[in-house]
Amino acid sequence: MKIYVDYDDCLCETARSFSKLALEMFNIDVPYEKIRYFELDKSFNLNEEQFEQFMIRGHQPEVLLSYEETPGASRVINELIAMGHEVSIITGRPFSAYEPSRQWLDNHGLKDVRLYCLNKYGRDSFIRNSDFNLELDDYYRMKFDFAIEDSPKAFKFFDHLPDLRVLVFDRPWNRECEFPNENYTRCSGWDTIERTLMI
User: Fold this and answer.
1) Is 36:43 a contact under the CB 8 Å cutoff?
2) CA dihedral defined by 81, 87, 92, 94, rounded to 10 degrees?
3) Which residues contact 116 (CB under 8 A, 6 or more apart)?
4) N or C terminus: fewer CB in 10 A for the chain?
5) Over its length of 199 residues, how does the chain's per-residue pLDDT go in tens digits?
6) How many Å apart are CA 191 and CA 187, to the nearest integer?
7) What is the pLDDT of residue 16?
8) How far is CA 164 from the centre of its chain?
9) How does 86-109 read in b/e, with b if 16+ C-beta sit within 10 Å?
10) How far apart are CA 87 and CA 14, in angstroms?
11) pLDDT tens digit string along 120-144?
12) Alpha-carbon gap, residue 9 to 7, rounded angstroms
């Protein structure tokens, strides 16, 4: 099998870290369970200038390296690789974040996964002069059997794969979204994902 895995809030607890960062930077207190929107400027009620500062800070190497692993992520992914499956991490982080993102993976025992930075969300608009090492045209030539994703905004990137099964990692900001079709399944964590993929 070929498996797509999103990075933030599938592999690591980015939103929990961002909740603390909003409090630290702007004295804005929005606990993780109250983050209702994938768009963090909306969730934290940040103006354009604050949002840019927030995202730049959140993508600094020392911050990226500090994110806690989502329980079970590295164990399950390594089991899948050991069984011969191909796992690719497809992140919306800009390529400027590639090295610390790669280091985080290596530090968590995920040295055998491929990492690609794809401009999923047009984020070069707030991290100026960003570039990405995977263009959408290249991505659309890739094939996957399963995808693990938390963001409803990313669902459109799966339209070209009608047989793809999408495992939606349960997060507060996706609990009210409608899934595009019956190929989408909500998963409470990596234990659920493991049971689904190991069938």
Assistant:
1) yes
2) 70
3) 88, 89, 90, 91, 133, 134, 139
4) C
5) 999 999 999 999 999 999 999 999 999 999 999 999 989 999 999 999 999 999 999 999 999 999 999 999 999 999 999 999 999 999 999 888 999 999 999 999 999 999 999 887 765 444 554 555 788 888 999 999 999 999 999 999 999 999 999 999 999 999 999 999 999 999 999 999 999 998 6
6) 9
7) 97
8) 18
9) ebbbbbbbbbbbbebbeebbeebe
10) 20
11) 776 544 455 455 578 888 899 999 9
12) 6
DSSP 39: S
Q: Which two tokens stand for residue 63?
A: 């911050």
Q: Specify which residues 74 forms β-bridges with.
A: none
What six digits make up the tokens of 153? Answer: 């905004």
Tell me if the pTM is above 0.90: yes
**Alpha helix (H) residue ranges in 35-142:** 40-43, 48-58, 61-64, 73-82, 98-107, 136-139
d(CA 70, CA 14): 9
The single residue listed with the structure tokens 């200038």 is 49
